[in-house]
């Protein structure tokens, strides 16, 4: 495979052009709404490949998309007519159980990190679906079932190895390029391509408990406010979650640790009303991390909108329940170790969030696109008056307004200065973009 500037011979990995076998598979991302055709896909098998790809894209004047798990809802890793820098072959995870560290390559999926660490009873915070990419998730923050005990995924990164917009390789840690280290913990893929994350691991054991109690939507306001109030006193092993879909309100929590201790808290939830059904399941941590893999699977059309809430007053639950079209609304609790980190320590913001809300919809018929998107927007708009910001990894098509919701003004200024320093030409703009100073 050859272009005038780049050929497979220059790479440890592979160059894919539109007629090549494997091209169609490689361009596909999680959201089936995304159907873009990059001019080139560089499947990078080494850090050297990433450097070569970045330099070639600039020489060829091609727009760059960076792909790890391919889970950006907008499919930002797949540029139409540009170069997809596909990191998926760079997926190795190495664990040192003595030092409690994991070195994770930039294209790895969360499942690979969980599996390698759990062999030693260790883990670090990762998201709730194992086929999500470590890359995009961690660079935007990284919320998961361990975050209330051990902080966000980004809080556990000890160092980054990054290829810059010039194709150079740099390190970022508390000692080396500390300002870049600050920005990579929450600032997304704006500054370069991370080829390796060094994570701190924690001895979390291998056991977990999931508690879900269903109530009919009629009369669910009291259930939800009770669930909220129980959350305020919940131990850090518990991450409270709730969903509203198809006339059923489900409240519960995920517990990472000794399941017996978790079961004690389940009773409090059962007492919130007259449950229609309940599911209490002990599972291994790895099973927990894969539990939603199928329902959150590929090849389905998707759209969502989210908010952060500092507080959830009763009126917010009324707004949630008053109008419940066929989008799934979910709430997940923050707090604990997330809020222990001073807000100014990382680019990730809104550490005083108590709950994250997402209105999500999935469908298969393209004829429903406009209606589905509108429903998710309408649902989220009803909760907007209670919002206190947004999570950058849950933003979709909000544009600059979304960036302003994700970062307070002072942080945005600091992130813009970092962008000016590391990517003044905005080579990396297919992301939730922080543009350089014009
Ligand atoms: C099914 C599903 C479940 C999710 N669950 C959670 C969850 O539990 N917790 C949570 O916090 N978020 C969750 N998210 C949101 C998720 O964090 C974002 O969608 C994230 O962008 C996905 O990263 P990715 O690597 O899979 O996606 P990609 O589309 O591959 O990447 C997204 C963007 O990240 C950047 N990027 C990715 N890798 C690198 C890299 N190595 N170097 C530089 N830039 C890079 C690029 O800018 C790229 O455009 C979930 C998303 C989905 C679809």
From TrEMBL:
The keyword Ribosomal protein does not apply. Keywords: FAD, Flavoprotein, Oxidoreductase. Its cofactor is FAD. The keyword Ribonucleoprotein does not apply. Signal peptide: none annotated. InterPro entries: BBE, FAD-bd_PCMH, FAD-bd_PCMH-like_sf, FAD-bd_PCMH_sub1, FAD-bd_PCMH_sub2, FAD-linked_Oxase-like_C, FAD-linked_Oxidoreductase, Oxid_FAD_bind_N. Pfam families: BBE, FAD_binding_4. It comes from the Bacteria. Residues 33-204 form the FAD-binding PCMH-type domain. PROSITE patterns: FAD_PCMH. Coiled coil: none annotated. Belongs to the oxygen-dependent FAD-linked oxidoreductase family. This is FAD-binding oxidoreductase. It comes from Agromyces humatus.
């Amino acid at each position: 495979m050859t272009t005038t500037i780049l050929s497979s011979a220059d790479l440890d990995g592979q160059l894919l052009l539109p007629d090549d076998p494997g091209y169609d598979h490689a361009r596909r991302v999680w959201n089936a709404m995304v159907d873009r055709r990059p001019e080139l896909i560089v499947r990078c098998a080494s850090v050297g490949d990433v450097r070569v790809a970045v330099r070639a894209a600039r020489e060829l004047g091609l727009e760059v998309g960076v792909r790890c798990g391919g889970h950006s809802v907008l499919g930002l890793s797949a540029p139409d007519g540009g170069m997809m820098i596909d990191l998926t072959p760079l997926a190795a995870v190495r664990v040192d159980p003595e030092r409690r560290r994991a070195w994770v390559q930039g294209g790895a999926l969360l499942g690979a990190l969980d599996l390698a660490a759990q062999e030693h009873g260790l883990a670090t915070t990762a998201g709730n679906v194992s086929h999500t990419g470590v890359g995009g998730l961690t660079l935007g923050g990284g919320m998961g079932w361990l975050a209330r005990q051990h902080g966000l995924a980004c809080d556990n990164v000890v160092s980054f190895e990054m290829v810059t917009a010039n194709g150079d390789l740099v390190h970022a840690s508390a000692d080396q390029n500390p300002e870049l280290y600050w920005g990579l913990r929450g600032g997304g893929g704006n500054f370069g391509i991370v080829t390796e994350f060094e994570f701190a691991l924690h001895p979390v054991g291998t056991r977990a408990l999931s508690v879900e109690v269903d109530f009919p939507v009629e009369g669910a306001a009291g259930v939800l406010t009770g669930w909220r109030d129980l959350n305020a006193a919940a131990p850090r092993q518990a991450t409270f979650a709730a969903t509203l879909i198809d006339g059923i309100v489900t409240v519960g929590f995920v517990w990472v640790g000794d399941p017996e201790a978790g079961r004690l808290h389940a009773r409090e939830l059962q007492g919130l009303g007259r449950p229609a059904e309940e599911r209490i399941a002990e599972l291994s941590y790895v099973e927990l991390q894969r539990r939603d893999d199928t329902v959150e699977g590929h090849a389905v059309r998707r759209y969502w909108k989210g908010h952060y809430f500092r507080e959830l007053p009763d009126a917010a639950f009324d707004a949630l329940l008053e109008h419940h079209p066929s989008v799934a609304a979910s709430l997940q609790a923050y707090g604990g170790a997330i809020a222990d980190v001073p807000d100014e320590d990382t680019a990730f913001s809104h550490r005083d969030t108590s709950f994250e809300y997402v209105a999500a919809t999935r469908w298969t018929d393209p004829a429903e696109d406009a209606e589905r998107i509108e429903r998710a927007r309408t649902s989220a708009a009803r909760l907007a008056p209670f919002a206190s910001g947004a999570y950058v990894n849950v933003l979709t098509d909000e544009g600059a307004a979304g960036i302003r919701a994700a970062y307070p003004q002072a942080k945005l200024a600091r992130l813009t200065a970092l962008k000016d320093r590391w990517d003044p030409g905005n080579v990396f703009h297919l992301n939730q973009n922080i543009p350089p100073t014009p």
